[in-house]
Amino acid sequence: MPSWFMPQASTSAVEIDNLILMITVIVGVWFVAAELVFFWLIWKFRARDGVRAQYVAGEAKSEKKWVSYPHYAVLVFDILILIFALRVWNNIKISAPPGEERVRIIAQQWAWTFQHAGPDNILDTADDIRTVEDMYVQVNRTYHFELHSKDVVHSFSVPAFRLKQDAVPGRAINGWFTATQTGTFDVQCAEICGIGHGLMPAHLHVRTAAEHQAWMAEVAGTGAAPAEAADMGTGEVLAHADTARVQMGAMQ
Ligand SMILES: [Cu+2]
């Protein structure tokens, strides 16, 4: 599907857009067909001098087919849409490709903190990189994310990735994404989470492998990660989350 309105910057974006396009075409064709028949009937049975109006109860077999045949067709298309929708749901939400890196996303009123694995590619080690309101990932690399909230329900939304996932306090919610385009994409909290909800954006920077490595080399080990991130009590939140961890099976 052409990306007229929003870049398709992840593998999931293409799948989701194709599903929406398929539904739009099916519904659109039926809409046009129904309107054409509707206006044709209005024209064909318009008022004429000397012709009395008839009362049509729709009981005759020749009349019932106008209802039953489209009804069967709609059921067939419903099943088709269901099959494609479940396939996309399974590919994106139920199963996940093997992750090449793990990243932790922490929401709070009203900021996003990101914990990157750093050069050793292992989370919760000394070289982790913590950032606030800026997330850094490498293009064409599969990330498994772990989403937390420190206070209320937030929602991690990246429109260009067609990714939206609630962050629920007390839970670690797992998901994944693979960025397919470099660039800087908007992140916005998509759940009304208090007075500052509208002021809870972030940026997701997708870079080439070389640019990403250079960024890590520059930031890791230099203590250059924003100081405020370290003060956010991440460990506390995670300890709490571990007791109520929700695991999505295949995502582990
Ligand atoms: Cu929020």
Summarize the helices and strands and which ones pair or pack.
Elements: H1 11-44, H2 61-94, E1 101-108, E2 111-116, E3 129-132, E4 134-138, E5 142-149, E6 154-158, E7 163-167, E8 173-178, E9 183-189, E10 201-207, H3 209-219, H4 227-230, H5 234-243
Parallel strand pairs: 1-5, 4-10
Antiparallel strand pairs: 1-2, 2-3, 5-8, 6-7, 6-9, 9-10
The structure holds copper (II) ion.
The coarse overall form would be elongated
**Secondary-structure element order, as H and E?**
HHEEEEEEEEEEHHH
Average pLDDT: 85
**Helix vs. strand class:** alpha+beta
Q: How many strands?
A: 10
Q: What is the highest CATH level, the class of the largest domain?
A: Mainly Beta
The span between the termini is 32 Å
**At the fourth CATH level, what is the homologous superfamily of the largest domain?**
Cupredoxins -  blue copper proteins
Instruction: Characterize the biggest β-sheet.
Output: 5 strands, mixed
Gyration radius, in Å: 26 Å
**What is the topology, as strand order, of the major beta sheet?**
3-2-1-5-8
CATH-scheme architecture of the largest domain? Sandwich
Q: Compounds present?
A: copper (II) ion
Q: In a few lines, what is going on in this structure?
A:
The protein is of the alpha+beta class and 252 residues long. The chain folds into 2 domains: 84 residues; 151 residues, Immunoglobulin-like (Sandwich).
Description of the structure:
By secondary structure, the protein is of the alpha+beta class. The protein folds into two domains: 11-94; 101-251, Cupredoxins -  blue copper proteins (Immunoglobulin-like), CATH 2.60.40.420. The protein has helices at 11-44, 61-94, 209-219, 227-230, 234-243; strands at 101-108, 111-116, 129-132, 134-138, 142-149, 154-158, 163-167, 173-178, 183-189, 201-207. Strands 3-2-1-5-8 form a five-stranded mixed β-sheet. The chain has a five-stranded mixed β-sheet with strand order 4-10-9-6-7. Bound molecules: copper (II) ion.
